[in-house]
Amino acid sequence: MDPHVVDRVKLPLSYDAARLRAEYDAMGLHPYMFYSTVMLKLPHERKPEDPPTRSPYIMSLIEAFNQHTQVTLARLLRLEPGSEVRQHCDPMLGLEVPDSVVRLTIPIFGGENVTFYLNDTPVPMQAGECWYLKLSDQHRITHGGLEERVNLTIDMKPTQWVRDLIQDSYTAAQSHS
Fold first, then answer.
1. Which of 131-146 are b and which e, b meaning 16 or more Cβ less than 10 Å from the residue's Cβ?
2. Burial class (CB in 10 A: 0-12, 13-18, 19+), 167
């Protein structure tokens, strides 16, 4: 796999979308317009005096990645119905970028009538799936659905474990196509 060429890989990891949705709903987040980012306190950042987390499942999957790499950021990305994210690139989010981090995306809900374009080609992400996307390339989102779209994104250092996970997933997908 050439990291300069491969722009998307569905990873062989899946998560309980209903459980993710229930934890999101329990957060009781405030209304927003267009686009909202909710920063999640990473498990290693929590202090004993912090109140119990309302999202133990989300925290456990972040911690599972943290066993193999350094998770640097975890967020919920919310997109209002009828909104769009204009085409842009995130120059520090690609395997091929020196000193970068990679972002894994886990859709939670609201993907119906939402199209994520990477290099002008749709990425068919479904709730509970986990994707590596080369976000240093051009990407955009259109949302024609009726409910908000929420994704969990986890940024991490591209350790050998992360690279192998992406490489092995890519190789497996190529052998089935």
1. bbbbbbbebebbbebe
2. middle
The CATH number of whichever domain residue 14 belongs to comes to: 2.60.120.330
Give the DSSP H/E element, type plus range, for residue 143.
strand 139-143
Burial of residue 53 (CB within 10 Å: 0-12, 13-18, 19+) is middle
Residue 5 is predicted with a pLDDT of: 67
pLDDT in tens, 61-108: 999 999 999 999 999 999 999 999 999 999 999 888 888 999 999 999
Tokens of 37: 């980012």
Name every residue whose Cβ is closer than 8 Å to that of residue 7 and which is 6 or more positions away in sequence.
Answer: 118, 119, 133, 134, 137
- Residue 55, beta-bridge partner list: none
Residue 92 structural domain: 8-44+54-175
Which of 78, 64, 60 has the alpha carbon at shortest distance from 149? 78
Number of domains in the chain: 1
The answer to whether position 49 is within a domain reads no
Helix pair angle (56-66, 17-26), 10° resolution: 120
